[in-house]
Hints:
By secondary structure, the protein is of the alpha/beta class. It has 16 helices and 17 strands.
Amino acid sequence: MPLTGIEIFKLLPKTNCKECGVPTCLAFAMALAAGKASLSQCPHVSQEAQAKLAEASAPPILPLTIGIGKRALKIGGETVMFRHEKRFENPPGLAMLISDTLEDSQVNARLERFKQLEYERVGLTLRPELIALKGESGDAARFAAAVGKVVQGSDANIILMSENAEVLAAGVKACADRKPLLCAATAENMGQVAELAKQNSCPVVARAPGLEKLSELTTRLGQAGVKDIVLDSGARTVRQAFEDQVIIRRSALVKKFRPLGFPTIVFPCEMTSDELKEAVIASAFVAKYAGIIVLSDFQGHSVFPLLVERMNIYTDPQRPLATSEGIYQIGIPDENSPVLLTTNFALTYFLISGYIEAGKVSSYLLVKDTEGLSVMTAWAAGKFVADAIAPFVKKCGIADKVKHRKLIIPGYAAAESGGLEEELPGWQILVGPREGAHIPAYLKTWKP
């Protein structure tokens, strides 16, 4: 059972050094017990105490990693029920289902779609991460061949799906270096699957009908030495699966019930035969509270909204979504193209770049880092003023890209025009529209 705040306090150095960012060791102990602090924040805790505090310092929902390298997917590690309390930590992985009974041409087509479904948004790369290989044939050799084809044809992280331990073993042999997720260990095959997972350092899906039997199974897996576990409650209706997700989350976070303190996997692909309805179901589980979501197939029109939803929900609500500072080319600008300035608040950037595109006048857009604040907010906070903007304009390199020396600033920052002309000798500061919607008409009047 997790330690209480007082029990944790007894193991701390009691120096009240404040180096952890908390005023006292007692306050730090209480935060640690509540899952709102990390033991690594304390620089003076002894090794003996670290060992005793390992359970208390672990997140209520244990994290695990599927795959290796830069594409590895981390799930779990969650500490709150609601995003506004702090933030959600690790976005759910999206998995495409591929059966070993599909024809080679069908498998190749899916792998090609998987590679193409990659999007750039707000400086982030959005893409699905997983391919779930299902051993429907029951033939170990055929399953291994399908796994090998996926390994050769993509860099995806892999889920191996079969309740037959021999089939799973054949699949693991074909992709052991990818550290796949084994799906699934049940009450019947637990011993074989647990041994397979330990031998290959792979995480395991625990599957049981209902949460009571599921918690019994995770306890047995833990006793067998398997710590990286993903939960499958067996629910294949939307209502029951949704209820299970909420109960599992509350049990782990509120009740501190460790047997359910693991990330989960859900299967919208088994809840409907309609692909669009499947995407709608998946969207519910992006919000509450799946760690992995398995879809029957990926199509751009259904996957892209899920990726954007996931990005929005799993961004830190205390930190505005921001783009990178720099020069952005809208269209094909040249040395005579207009130069506009804005902040790096993501919504501002997307709106302004969209209005510039609508105006059909190729332009350079200078994006100043204002810690993700909008124009008015950044100006009021002193982050979008002349003495902050001028050094950026000088260093960004825009002077090497254009012959003219004209800079268009947002109308809401008009008060900075005089200061900018002093800070940027030789530059003419033009005050643009206050509203972005007026930019297309404004650009029609541009003269270098």
